């Protein structure tokens, strides 16, 4: 049951984008169309899950064992950068179709703070491996959900008559604020 | 001439308002003016250090591996700042928490290293680091002030309106960050448009 609550909490209540402010750059950058938002969300879900698992293992098998916890930031970002590069090469070789649709988002993911953020939160919360996995997948799905919803709204905004000075990013921010307000409605769901 | 490098980052190329970089910490930690300043200064410290270091080693690093090399340099300075803040400003470090290590993935830092420090001298890069850092700090300070005044009725912890004021708590909750920054950007557009029109009218 607590695993289920952790999952719901990660997807809805502590939504990565709208409550924790992680991964804002891609949230605004690639949310102009629903299709690209779905692509980005899937790429992030995949990388976040793999990166979360690897950094979790490194933290407990290497950093803690040799008492070099202060290297956490440096090691994690290198692992993520290398992983993204590696995933890009594997996908390019094994599935050109998937590469076509995800390819452009992969390099962007290295500088997506949601990935590093999730890795660090996993360690700070002291999750065991199973909880870490559930939390990471939940967070990534929450990110995808928020992005897809936001992209849907933005497609509609494109067609509507916005006051001149609010066109473009300002109205996008205010829309995101209202979306965040809606997501706050979930906050009673999990304590 | 040198001064223009400094002011460029603060106003003309403000990292948040003009380049729309570094949004995560901008939105997350600006629940009060002091938090905004602390985050801004921490980022400025990293920017100065990484800009100088990148400018020093720019001719040694092969072009192909420069991005990973920059990331390692930046991560080193972030770790330094992280540990020293934990030692000397423990309370602030606890509030900013996760977002201190996340300076590594702040696009502003890597952006300045790649677009300025890798092409310019050490001193100019230092100035650019200070300028961009100050621009970032200024934006965070304004955003933090607006949110603190509206959402908590105080400024730098000082009570402004007395006991009968009921603050709009929304402003210090997550949605407030998006909404206030949206209005700040719209205001920025407005000011620029006005300036453009008045300049056009004078000619």
Name the shape of chain B in a single word. Answer: globular
Quaternary structure of the protein: heterodimer
Number of distinct beta strands of chain B? 2
Taking all Cα atoms into account, the compactness measure Rg of chain A is 18 Å
Task: Identify low-pLDDT runs of chain A.
Answer: none
Number of strands of chain A: 0
Shape of chain A: globular
**Poorly predicted runs of chain B:** none
Largest sheet of chain A: none
Characterize the structure shown.
- The complex is a heterodimer of chains A (191) and B (203).
- With 191 residues, chain A is mainly α.
- Chain A is 74% helix and 0% strand.
- In chain A, α8 packs across α9 (169-184).
- The mean pLDDT of chain A is 86.
- With 203 residues, chain B is mainly α.
- Chain B has helices at 2-12, 23-28, 33-57, 66-88, 90-96, 107-117, 122-152, 174-202, and strands at residues 154-155, 158-159.
- In chain B, β1 (154-155) and β2 (158-159) form a beta hairpin.
- Chain B starts with a helix and ends with a helix.
- The chains are: A mainly alpha (191), B mainly alpha (203).
- At the A-B interface, α2, α4, α7 and α9 of A face α2, α4 and α8 of B.
Lay out the secondary structure.
The complex is a heterodimer of chains A (191) and B (203).
Chain A: H1 2-13, H2 24-29, H3 34-63, H4 72-94, H5 96-102, H6 106-109, H7 113-124, H8 129-159, H9 169-184
Helix pairs in contact in A: 1-8, 3-4, 3-7, 3-8, 4-5, 4-7, 7-8, 8-9
Chain B: H1 2-12, H2 23-28, H3 33-57, H4 66-88, H5 90-96, H6 107-117, H7 122-152, E1 154-155, E2 158-159, H8 174-202
Antiparallel strand pairs in B: 1-2
Helix pairs in contact in B: 1-7, 3-4, 3-6, 3-7, 4-5, 4-6, 6-7
């Amino acid at each position: 049951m607590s695993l289920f609550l952790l999952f719901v909490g990660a997807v809805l209540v502590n939504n990565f984008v709208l409550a924790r402010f992680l991964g804002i750059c891609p949230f605004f950058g690639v949310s102009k169309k629903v299709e690209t938002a779905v692509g980005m969300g899937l790429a992030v879900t995949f990388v976040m899950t793999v990166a979360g698992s690897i950094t979790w293992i490194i933290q407990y098998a290497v950093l803690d064992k040799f008492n070099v916890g202060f290297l956490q930031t440096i090691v994690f970002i290198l692992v993520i950068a290398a992983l993204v590069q590696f995933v890009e090469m594997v996908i390019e070789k094994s599935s050109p179709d998937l590469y076509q649709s995800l390819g452009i988002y992969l390099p962007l993911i290295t500088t997506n703070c949601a990935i590093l953020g999730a890795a660090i939160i996993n360690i700070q919360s002291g999750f065991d491996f199973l909880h870490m996995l559930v939390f990471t997948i939940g967070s990534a799905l929450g990110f995808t959900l928020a992005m897809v919803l936001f992209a849907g709204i933005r497609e509609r905004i494109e067609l509507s008559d916005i006051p001149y000075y609010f066109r473009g990013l300002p109205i996008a921010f205010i829309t995101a604020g209202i979306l965040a307000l809606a997501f706050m409605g979930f906050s009673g769901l999990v304590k | 001439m040198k001064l223009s490098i400094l002011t460029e980052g603060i106003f003309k190329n403000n990292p948040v308002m003009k380049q729309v970089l570094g949004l995560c910490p901008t939105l997350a930690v600006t629940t009060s003016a002091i938090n905004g300043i602390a985050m801004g200064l921490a980022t400025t410290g990293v920017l100065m250090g990484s800009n100088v270091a990148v400018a020093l080693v720019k001719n040694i690093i092969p072009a192909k591996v420069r991005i990973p090399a920059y990331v390692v340099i930046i991560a080193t300075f972030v770790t330094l700042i992280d540990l020293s803040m934990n030692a000397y400003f423990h309370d602030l470090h606890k509030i900013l928490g996760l977002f201190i290590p996340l300076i590594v993935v702040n696009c502003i830092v890597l952006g300045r290293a790649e677009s300025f420090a890798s092409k310019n001298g050490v001193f100019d890069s230092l100035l650019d680091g200070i300028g961009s850092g100050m621009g970032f700090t200024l934006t965070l300070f304004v955003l933090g002030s607006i949110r603190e005044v509206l959402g908590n009725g105080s400024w730098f912890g000082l009570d402004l309106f007395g006991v009968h004021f009921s603050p709009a708590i929304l402003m210090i909750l997550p949605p407030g960050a998006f909404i206030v920054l949206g209005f700040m950007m719209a205001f920025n557009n407005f000011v620029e448009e006005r300036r453009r029109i008045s300049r056009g009218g004078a000619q």
